[in-house]
Backbone:
């Protein structure tokens, strides 16, 4: 089947207004309809969009979900977070491959199916999970994989698969003001219009709302600065690229509380004077797209979006949803903007920050999904109501995504200041030994620190809370995270591009039982370089899991060291592999004996 | 009155909007760098020019100078980190100085000399990278590419051609060219392009000129890169 038969390139390009800024969306549509993005398509796109081919190839080759070679009719990507691994992902993947007579990363001989891994897909509460042609299938076990294998063998189109495979419960275990209270669409907007924009900004300020993506920048300060900044247009961007492994609270907010999020964006638009907004939704959440579009349509009908919102003559605002394509780095706000502009997601040089120079170099507010949800509640109920929750430096509630070794994984909404111990009691994690707070880029804490608090002044978090019991090997946890960072580094700056891969290689060397104390020091050295010299937060934090687990669980490393001084990375026997292949020899004499 | 900041205790005058790198270069002070070139928009990717700006680390090429700022550059700690970055650049590619036509004129090699690099320190990646000799006048030797994007910027911003770009990501990032075949010969590249001479290493070199000046008599064979003005670029003489 040639792509010319199925792929209406001019139609796709027209749907995205012939605008090269929409290149990521165009490529996504091309791949959805052709199955691949073939080389000749890049040339045709270059002509249709009137941009150099090299620019299109740069973008197409940057994102993990785009590929030039065929992945067959069914592309199966197993989520590869450590939580998935703990839930038996490796064995299940092998089982699945054996059932279909496949090898991972190799298209099946009948050209039908392709199996590979992918970074965490936001379902750690329902691990192991996978994506089938981009659509999430949670809670994998042998029987569900049997069913999937049968459907593939029968070549059933995805639309005819049993819907229960794709059902994803919210798992809200502890509701709070965002997740547990009813919200009437329009309530926050009406309050905003009644109060006026200055006064609404003052309420957000009084609420002491800080960004929920982890960094904790004061929302009112960002909005006020953007409002003041001069530009041809102002933009509102909702960062729904929830890529931090172990985080899934935005998935739940968008699935069940999308009105709150969209309303928060609209309140922001009113405050900063924006007419256009974007939701940058991670590609892994494609299953939410249809639902979100229908919420947007309903809001347009209710005059909560579009022209003259709620009859206010000078209040026009609408929201578009853009999907990501498999790049964790796009959760960094300036990389996200680059991606929205159709480029590879590489963080910009800052300053200037997006509040002055964001989308199309115009003033732009970028906030997390949860931040907008909070903003809507504040606009509705006032800043004092919000500030009364939490701690003085961390006002309000926080959604925590709990996963791993506990009885009740899911979303918990707490007032800021809750102790780790309380969360562990509530989720049923009696045997907890360590918790990774805020994902690989966050903080690993040991059982000695369970009285620490979830708050900006202690454990700042975007929401991930991965629990590890006594039986878990914290070395393997850290090794999984080094693979993640090496895979997700954008490659722009030297320290991160090279340093993350060096770290991964050293951790693999240790795992192979070939490490020494020298390697441990080497990893600390690389951490120092990353922390000081990397271009963005990904690089700054990429060595944290290694260094923190080394410090807190040294025994997990020490038992792997072959020697205490030095062990070369060069594998003499491994170097003979090519010669063995060429000569067709694999006998005993073709191998170098391992030293005793 | 001219605005000034201090760089390692020395007073450096600057004009509004100038970066630390630009002001330092104008004052004749060298800050190690590879991806920076005064003719092109600052990029900030190699991170060699990282300096301490009042207690915070940042790239000198992308941070603007400000009145009264205290900047440290020539410290033992920063030079040790720069050395590590240079070593990272060496091990991620395949750099074989003794057999490289650019030896002696190569900024990567010169920076390594300057920082006192004696070994690559880190484990080599030995990546498999393509060499593209398709073009009649220009050789593209990706083993030596350090992804500074100077050729990308030169081709786009000066030559107006967009011959080069960066494909892939992370450690798999690679220099790509504007042709479906992936061959330099099928692009509009010309040997007279600015992009043909801006490469700080031997990744893009003019054919048949490799040894016009013998090794041992080249720029950095006799001068430390810190002594060579204007980003150390030696313009090749035209025939």
Residues:
């Amino acid at each position: 089947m040639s792509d010319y038969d199925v792929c209406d390139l001019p139609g796709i390009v027209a749907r995205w207004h012939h605008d090269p800024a929409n290149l990521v969306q165009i490529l996504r549509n091309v791949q959805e309809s052709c199955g691949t993005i073939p080389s000749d398509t890049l040339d045709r796109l270059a002509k249709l969009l009137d941009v150099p081919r090299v620019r299109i190839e740069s973008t197409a080759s940057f994102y993990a979900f785009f590929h030039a070679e065929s992945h067959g009719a069914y592309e199966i990507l197993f989520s590869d977070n450590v939580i998935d691994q703990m839930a038996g992902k490796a064995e299940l993947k092998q089982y699945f491959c054996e059932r279909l007579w496949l090898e991972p990363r190799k298209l099946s001989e009948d050209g039908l199916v392709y199996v590979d891994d992918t970074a965490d897909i936001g379902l750690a509460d329902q691990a192991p999970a996978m994506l089938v042609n981009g659509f999430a299938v949670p809670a994998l076990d042998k029987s569900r994989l049997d069913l999937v294998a049968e459907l593939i063998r029968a070549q059933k189109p995805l639309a005819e698969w049993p819907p229960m495979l794709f059902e994803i419960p919210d798992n809200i275990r502890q509701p709070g003001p965002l997740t547990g209270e009813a919200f009437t669409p329009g309530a926050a907007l009406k309050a905003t219009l009644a109060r006026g924009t200055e006064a609404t900004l003052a309420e957000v300020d009084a609420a002491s709302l800080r960004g929920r993506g982890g960094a904790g920048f004061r929302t009112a300060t960002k909005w006020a600065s953007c409002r003041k900044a001069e530009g041809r247009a102002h933009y509102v961007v909702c960062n729904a690229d929830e890529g931090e492994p172990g985080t899934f609270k935005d998935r739940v907010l968008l699935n069940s509380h999308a009105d709150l999020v969209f309303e928060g964006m609209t309140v922001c638009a009113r405050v900063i004077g924006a007419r256009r907004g974007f939701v940058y939704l991670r590609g892994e959440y494609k299953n939410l797209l249809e639902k979100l579009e229908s919420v947007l349509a309903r809001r347009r009908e209710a005059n909560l979006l579009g022209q003259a919102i709620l009859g206010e003559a000078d209040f026009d605002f609408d929201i578009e949803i853009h999907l990501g394509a498999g790049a964790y780095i796009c959760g960094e706000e300036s990389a996200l903007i680059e991606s929205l502009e159709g480029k590879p997601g590489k963080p910009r040089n800052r300053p200037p920050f997006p509040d002055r120079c964001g989308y199309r170099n115009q003033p732009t507010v970028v906030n997390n999904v949860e931040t907008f949800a909070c903003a809507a509640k504040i606009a509705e109920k006032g800043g004092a109501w919000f500030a009364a929750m939490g701690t003085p430096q961390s006002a309000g509630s926080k959604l925590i995504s709990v996963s791993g070794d506990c009885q009740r994984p899911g979303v918990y909404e707490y007032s800021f200041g809750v102790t780790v111990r309380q969360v562990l009691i509530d989720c049923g994690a009696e045997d907890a030994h360590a918790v990774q707070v805020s994902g690989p880029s966050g903080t690993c804490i040991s059982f000695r620190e369970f009285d620490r608090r979830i708050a900006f002044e202690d454990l700042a978090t975007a929401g991930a809370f991965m629990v590890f019991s006594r039986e878990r090997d914290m070395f393997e946890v850290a090794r999984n995270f080094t693979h993640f960072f090496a895979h997700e580094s954008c490659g722009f700056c030297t320290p991160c591009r090279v340093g993350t891969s060096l770290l991964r290689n050293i951790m693999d060397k240790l795992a192979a039982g070939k490490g020494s104390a020298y390697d441990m020091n080497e990893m600390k050295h690389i951490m120092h370089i990353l922390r000081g010299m990397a271009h963005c937060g990904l690089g700054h934090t990429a060595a944290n899991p290694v260094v923190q687990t080394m410090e807190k669980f040294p025994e997990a490393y020490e038992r792997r060291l072959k020697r205490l001084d030095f062990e070369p990375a060069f594998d003499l026997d491994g170097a003979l592999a090519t010669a063995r292949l060429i000569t067709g020899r694999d006998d005993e004499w073709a191998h170098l004996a391992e030293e005793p | 009155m001219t605005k000034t900041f201090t760089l390692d205790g020395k007073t450096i005058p600057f004009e509004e909007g100038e970066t630390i790198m630009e002001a330092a270069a104008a004052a004749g002070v060298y800050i190690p760098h590879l991806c920076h070139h005064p003719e092109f928009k600052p990029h900030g990717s190699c991170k060699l020019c990282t300096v301490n700006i009042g207690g915070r680390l940042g790239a000198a090429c992308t941070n603007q100078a400000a009145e009264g700022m205290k900047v440290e550059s020539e410290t033992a700690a920063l030079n040790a980190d720069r050395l590590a970055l240079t070593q990272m650049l060496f091990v991620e590619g395949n750099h074989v100085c003794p057999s490289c036509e650019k030896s002696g004129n190569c900024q990567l090699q010169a920076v390594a000399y300057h920082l006192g690099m004696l070994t690559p320190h880190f484990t080599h990646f030995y990546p498999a990278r393509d060499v593209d000799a398709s073009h009649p006048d220009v050789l593209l030797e990706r083993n030596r590419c350090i992804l500074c994007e100077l050729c990308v910027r030169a081709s786009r911003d000066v030559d107006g051609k967009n011959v080069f770009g960066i494909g892939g990501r992370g450690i798999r990032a690679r220099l790509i060219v504007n042709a479906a075949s992936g061959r330099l010969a099928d692009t509009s590249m010309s040997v007279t392009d600015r992009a043909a001479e801006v490469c700080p290493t031997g990744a893009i070199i003019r054919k048949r000129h490799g040894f016009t000046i013998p090794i041992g008599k080249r720029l950095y064979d006799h001068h430390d890169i810190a002594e060579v003005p204007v980003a150390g670029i030696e313009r090749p003489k035209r025939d």
Q: What stands out?
A: Chain B touches chain A at residues 42, 44-48, 50, 57, 59, 62, 81, 84-85, 88-89, 91-92, 122-123, 125, 146-147, 162-173, 176-180 (CB under 8 Å). Helices of chain B lie at 20-26, 76-92, 107-114, 150-158, 219-222.
